[in-house]
Request: fold
Amino acid sequence: MITLHALKYLRATRVLWLLADLGQPCNRIDYDRTKSFRAPEALKRVHPLGKSPVIEDEGEMVAESSTILRYLAAKYGDNSHTPPQGTHAYWQHEALLDYVEASFAEVALQAILPTFGGDPVPEAARSALDVHLDYITQLIGDGPLLFGNRAMLADIQMSYIIALLARLDLLNDYPVIATYWDALQEQPGYIAATQVTGPMAPPADTERK
Reply:
């Protein structure tokens, strides 16, 4: 059975979402954040960088959310969370799956972190974020999700950053993405995962003063 090392209010919910979709259980080991909302030292005994999520499977230790999602889809022979291989949509999907953490997350966090601290979003950070939100709006198109009605791995990967932006009211000028977030929250796997772990984004009382 897969062992999932999961830090509260982090990307591990995405792994549980896919496992729920696949009907696969896991042995989940949860880690509480420190008072400063950081990962505990215990996670460094699992991964040298204190990564979460990390999965263990038959001697394999796999980190990085997009890699974990791909690993699980391959392990369980799942092809329902990607467009048909060899198509334009397939390669667009593969690029988006990596885009979330490689490009979007870094830009989004420049707006998210000040907001969590009670500060306004810096103008440069807001401008950079707007470029990406315009791009994602175009990707969604008629929606409701990135590739139609069914959540793909890229949707699952995208959900965490979108959850944070929605939680901090940073999607107010982007109704298409706000509607996309509503659609993500209606997915059975999302519902199953958050019933176990709680919301993806932390509640208000965890924000730094």
